[in-house]
């Protein structure tokens, strides 16, 4: 199964983006990447920006990013199963250390890089 990672990305104070979470999905020899405005911990939609593909090394990396681009810490990691993928929507099922459920990325109408992310956890038996 392909892997995913979510990195908590702290940027320098001078950067306008500020704190965000990088969702990275293994896809062949690269990681498809989105910068999320918040933690994907509830069924609330989160704004996201699609970024250029990243190197597979980020699946295991934590630490400073070169070029004074901040610091990343692994927030979650695991594997995923692709349910459906089109140009405007990606649906996956994730199984990680924090997340276990369905995650949907939907491109905003008429936008190139603006997406929305929804996470629906698998109910746990109590």
Structure write-up:
The chain is mainly beta. The chain has one domain (3-121). The chain contains no helices and nine strands. The protein has an eight-stranded antiparallel barrel with strand order 1-2-3-4-9-8-7-6. The protein is globular and about 35 Å long.
Calculate the terminal CA-CA distance, rounded to whole Å: 28 Å
| Overall pLDDT metric | 93
What order do the SSEs take from the amino end to the carboxyl end, as H and E?
A: EEEEEEEEE
Give helix % range: under 10%
Q: How many helix segments?
A: 0
**Strand-residue fraction?**
over 45%
The chain-level structural class is mainly beta
Summed up, the domain count is 1
Give the strand order, joined by hyphens, for the main sheet. Answer: 1-2-3-4-9-8-7-6
The protein's oligomeric status is: single chain
Q: How many strand units?
A: 9
Search tags:
mainly beta; single chain; globular
List the helices and strands and how they pair.
Layout: E1 3-10, E2 20-27, E3 30-36, E4 46-54, E5 63-64, E6 71-85, E7 89-96, E8 100-107, E9 114-121
Antiparallel strand pairs: 1-2, 1-6, 2-3, 3-4, 4-9, 5-6, 6-7, 7-8, 8-9
What's the gist of this structure?
The chain is mostly beta strands.
């Amino acid at each position: 199964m392909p892997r995913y990672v979510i990195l908590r990305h702290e940027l320098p104070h001078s950067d306008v983006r500020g704190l965000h979470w990088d969702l990275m999905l293994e896809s062949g020899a690269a990681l498809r990447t989105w910068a999320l405005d918040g933690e994907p911990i509830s069924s609330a939609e989160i704004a996201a920006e699609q970024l250029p593909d990243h190197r597979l090394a980020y699946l295991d990396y934590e630490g400073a990013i070169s070029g004074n681009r901040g610091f990343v810490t692994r927030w979650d990691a695991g594997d995923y199963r692709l349910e459906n993928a089109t140009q405007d929507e990606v649906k996956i099922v994730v199984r990680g250390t924090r997340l276990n459920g369905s995650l949907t990325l939907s491109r905003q109408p008429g936008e190139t890089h603006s997406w929305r992310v929804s996470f629906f956890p698998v109910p746990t038996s109590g």
